[in-house]
Amino acid sequence: MNTDLISAEQLTAFQQDGFLIVDALFSQEEVTLLGQIGRADLAMQQVTFSRADGEGGAVKLNVENEVGDDIYGAIASSHRVVDRMEALLGDEVYHYHHKMIQKEAKVGGAWAWHQDYGYWYNNGCLSPDMGSCMIAVDRATVENGCLQVLKGSHLLGRIDHGKVGDQTGADPERVEAACKRLELFYCTLEPGSAIFFHSNLLHRSDQNKSEHPRWGFICCYNTRHNNPYKESRHPRYTPLAKREDADVLRVGHAQWEQMQAHPSL
Hints:
seven-stranded antiparallel beta sheet; Phytyl_CoA_dOase-like; dioxygenase; Jelly Rolls; single chain; alpha+beta
């Protein structure tokens, strides 16, 4: 497990706050290619679905459990993401799933306050030793509905979750109390920058009423010692073959060339 990418100060900040922002984790060329491929990916659009937010809007997303030989898989298994996640969670991690959040201009819906472990608890994961890395495909701003987090809320433990529109949200009474005691932080990000966050961190986002889309690519991981005790919609532990960082551009360019040559794919 390579811990060189995370400093002692960054690890302490993650443990205290529940999240860590890494600027320019991916280059402009890499994230532009990711956006081009995602927006032209007909196969991905066929499995994209919406979740109503209970406020009149909806969020589009797709979820994939497998690490494919494409730009999504190259990013999800890249050393720069996986090694950091292992350092932050203190164990070997495996790919739990990845997803593209597609919050379109003017119509992109909100996400209710929730913890990812609020969902994943029911998948047979005994502990919240899990985390996610969200990479900004587009600039994430307050106006276009960037991620909002409550600093240190991962230390509250798992909160009960229930239905909010088509989504699952954390208990509103406890969220209200947490909002009064903890600092609200808006995770504004430039394209290619990323936020690593703990599975118990309370987070949400507003509707996108701006003129600018806000797409984000999220890679989710579980720790080896937290291997689920039962089958669920997401996989049990399988060793993750890490890929060289250079593979993101190599695989991405090959994928883009194939998509240009065969637009119907």
